Amino acid sequence: MNERILVVEDEKSIAKILKIELEYEGYEVIAANDGRTGFQLALEGNFDLILLDVMLPELNGMEVLRKIRKENDMIPIILLTARNMTMDKVAGLDLGANDYITKPFEMEELLARVRSSLRQSAVSTSALKAEEEILTIKDIMVNPQTREVERGGKPISLTPKEFDFLVYLLANKNRIVTRDNIINNVWGYEYIGETNVIDVYIRHLRKKLEEDFSDSQIIHTVRGVGYIIKES
Ligand code: CA
After folding, report:
1. How remote is the CA of residue 106 from the centroid of ligand 1, in Å?
2. Which of 38, 78, 130, 220 is geometrically suited to a Cys-Cys bond with 8, CB 3.0 to 4.6 A?
3. Ramachandran category for residue 144: left, alpha or beta (phi over 0 → left; psi -120 to 50 → alpha)
4. Distance 59 CA to ligand 1 centre (A)
5. Which H/E stretch holds residue 82?
6. Any idea what the Cα angle at residue 184 is, between residues 6 and 220, rounded to 5°?
7. Sign of the CA dihedral with 30 first, then 31, 32, and 38 last
8. CA torsion 6→8→12→18, rounded to 10°?
9. What's the gap in Å between 54 CA and the centre of ligand 1?
10. How far is the CA of 218 from the centre of ligand 1 (A)?
């Protein structure tokens, strides 16, 4: 089934070109040209992603964002902000927007951001489902409910963040997760530090989990992309 995108934009020419381009990419697109209608559709329309202009009649984009997030904290929302409105970007991310794009934008960049947000949302949805089960790899067992980790029946002590990181990797077992995926899903959008924090955590996790697997690893580096956890 096609992914459904809600476009909330009052400038008719922009709404129109977005609809044409997104439909060309194979998405199903519904457009709203004021904030109130956008908010109502967001709640009722079963969308996979929302493109939300900030300057809107009836209800501005920030209000729409805040109201949507009260009801739904999963759906990816990309803000369309005016150039130089740094406050909007920061406030928007604080209110739970996943990304923003500055007007005027290049269509290719917007389409890339849409694809990336949809991908991340698919990864975190599957991570959420996996959290209900016991996760295993080799002789390692992880219980997301009790936050216990065992290897060969012996408990392993992880810090809370190491634990979250391991659960995220295991929830995506046999699938590459990018450094962006990791930062967004394990550290969250508030994180604006160095991304080499990931390397530090990987090193600690390997030391705690892999030290006597000799040459076989479970956490594999995919150079220039990210990491994958798998049996060998
Ligand atoms: Ca506008």
Report:
1. 17
2. 38
3. alpha
4. 11
5. strand 77-82
6. 125
7. positive
8. -40
9. 6
10. 49
**What amino acid is encoded at 12 in this protein?**
K
> Do the Cβ atoms of 31 and 9 come closer than 8 Å?
yes
Give me the CATH code for the 132-229 domain, please: 1.10.10.10
Start-to-end C-alpha separation, the chain? 35
Distance 72 CA to ligand 1 centre (A): 23
Fold held by 4-125: Rossmann fold (3.40.50)
- In the chain, residues under CATH classification 3.40.50.2300 are 4-125
Expressed in angstroms and rounded, the spacing between residue 52 Cα and the centre of ligand 1 is 9
Q: Give every CB contact of residue 107 below 8 A, 6+ residues apart in sequence.
A: 17, 21
Q: Is the pTM of this model over 0.70?
A: no
**Ligand 1 centre distance from Cα of residue 121 (Å):** 26
Q: For residue 216, what pLDDT is reported?
A: 61
Helix (H, G, I), strand (E, B) or coil at 21: helix
CA of 43 to the centre of ligand 1 (A): 21
Q: At what angle do helices 12-24 and 107-130 cross, to 10 degrees?
A: 60
Tokens standing for 110? 């917007």
pLDDT in tens, 29-72: 999 999 999 999 999 888 999 999 999 999 999 999 999 999 88
Q: How far is the CA of 11 from the centre of ligand 1 (A)?
A: 6
Nearest alpha carbon to residue 121 among 74, 168, 69, 167: 74
